[in-house]
Amino acid sequence: MASSDTSDAPIEAEGETTPTFADLGLGDAVLKALKDVGYETPSAIQAQTIPLLLGGRDVLGVAQTGTGKTAAFALPILDQLDTTQKTPQALVLAPTRELALQVCEAFEKYAARMRGVHVLPVYGGQGYGTQLSALRRGVNIVVGTPGRIMDHLDKGTLDLSELRFLVLDEADEMLKMGFAEDVETILADTPSDKQTALFSATMPAQIRRISQQHLNDPEEITVKSKTTTSANISQRYLMVSYPQKVDALTRILEVENFDGMIVFVRTKSETETLAEKLRARGYTAAAISGDIAQAQRERTVEQLKSGKLDILVATDVAARGLDVDRITHVVNYDIPIDPESYVHRIGRTGRAGRTGDAISFVTPRERRLLGAIERATRQPLTEMRIPTVEDVNSTRLTRFDDAITEALGDQERLAAFRDIIAHYVEHHDVVEADVAAALAIVSQGETPLLLPPDPPRRERPQRDDRERRSDDDRGERRPRSGAQLSPYRIEVGRRQRVEPRQIVGALANEGGLNRDDFGRIDIRPDFSIVELPADLPRETLDRLAATRIGGQAIELKPDPRPFRSTGGPRGGGRFRDDRPARGGFRGDDRGGDRGGDRGGDRGDRGGYGSRDGDDRGPRKPRH
């Protein structure tokens, strides 16, 4: 097997020019789509992989996220696709639902100039009905997580008999998450003459063994990512829930001293929605996406350059190649899925040696994306908090002071207004200070200068250790998040061979819970008791009641009895971070995928799930 080691910059050997996508042998439809999205030259892994896959070779690629490997396998697959065939021709296995959706979006973007291409994401947590109806209509490309793909194979609803292309994306992550057995089973259930590409950031022995067993004389390619960000860009992030984003952005706009700003969102529809919300709050904002005409795009960019427009809400594609000196701030309203996009986005500021600011909104379940960006760029992001009302009012007062100071410097206009004020004071018997205040009211209009204070937070009463211990005895424990825990009953137990990690995975995935929301779990013969926040919303309870583990509805409902753990070999106790579960994996939002994908739909093989964990790994109950 040949091996090469190169950076992610375009390849340029001595005496040779940088290759273009047309040089790689791609067809016209794919090349037009690449031109539409602004791709000009292939990255190293694309330049090496695309000709091999077009030539029918199997490929073993060692590459980090952010090197462009999605396009490396998606483009040659699309170029060779037979759109008249209704059974799946290509299967891409991904470790998480987030990556599966990202790959699907990439396929759809690259297939924009092709007719009749149908791509289907398949992952746990999504209803079977949508997936089954799409499979019945006919699908060319399936992108899914191993757990849900296995479910469809077991049910006979996914036909891989005519599969021509198979891709294992981030194979080492799939092994870490306990998908090794599933991947082996899926590979064994596909045609032996298919073309296979395996991509992995590392090459452990198990990956090497899989490649030797299932790939046919693969060409090995090694690409090192050099994704870096400019040192003169200040990079910060804000932990925020999705409903808080608009208010958080508004307060940031109040306190940040920005000139021009680009706010990045993931979807075209969100660009205009957010721009309209900002205009309603008094900001000059406009939206650009891949759908707007070139003439309109040019007008909008010119308005941004001239200062008639201060905020541009854009997608990655629309902002590609945008270079405006006024851009002092970039806000990732939706954090990008891969580090390469992050680097491209924040590169819109801090250009030509100037300083810039980049602020990223991160929801709890997106902590993994934040970690991937920090690892790839080798630069930690600084956490910031949402500006308070006091912060906003202080900034407003400072700007008001500055406006008065500037006006005091215009002596000619001041002289004219002194006469007007003196006339009013003389004829209305009002002190000059009151006249100045009244003029401030007139200039301010209906918008108040200062915001009202936030309502005071209710402080929980402090209790001594003895009271806390007594609460524990009553089953009223508090997680680290501060919410009170209460016992809930679910109708699966030891007879269903349920394990604590399956319960956590299914509930975290379907209910939007995080690892701090779980207390003790007690598994009984016919049912289990699990501690969850006492104030779960009704809609969350309804979702959880319909959740299935091992094919059985759990029918979750509050349990009025005090928590009494029976201990034993299969239940009871609190979760710990320091011991990985058997066949377990790292406890970030991949766990939610694993837990829902396997724990929710194939209970006896489930995994520990969490939406917003860190890198400390899964937790097991104390026995």
UniProtKB/TrEMBL annotation:
Comp. bias (Basic and acidic residues): 455-479, 574-623
Compartment(s) of residence: Cytoplasm
Listed EC numbers: 3.6.4.13
GO cellular component, one term: cytosol
The entry's keywords: ATP-binding, Cytoplasm, Helicase, Hydrolase, Nucleotide-binding, RNA-binding, Stress response
One Gene Ontology biological process: ribosomal large subunit assembly
Residue ranges of every copy of the DEAD-box RNA helicase Q domain listed in the record: 19-47
Motif (Q motif): 19-47
Helicase C-terminal domain segment(s): 245-393
Entry superkingdom: Bacteria
SUPFAM superfamilies in the record: P-loop containing nucleoside triphosphate hydrolases (SSF52540)
Main location: cytoplasm
Annotated ranges, domain Helicase ATP-binding: 50-221
Reactions accelerated catalytically: ATP + H2O = ADP + phosphate + H(+)
Family (UniProt): Belongs to the DEAD box helicase family. DeaD/CsdA subfamily.
Biological role: DEAD-box RNA helicase involved in various cellular processes at low temperature, including ribosome biogenesis, mRNA degradation and translation initiation.
Protein name, entry field: ATP-dependent RNA helicase DeaD
Organism expressing this protein natively: Microbacterium oryzae
Lineage, uppermost ranks: Bacteria, Bacillati, Actinomycetota, Actinomycetes, Micrococcales
Gene this protein is translated from: deaD
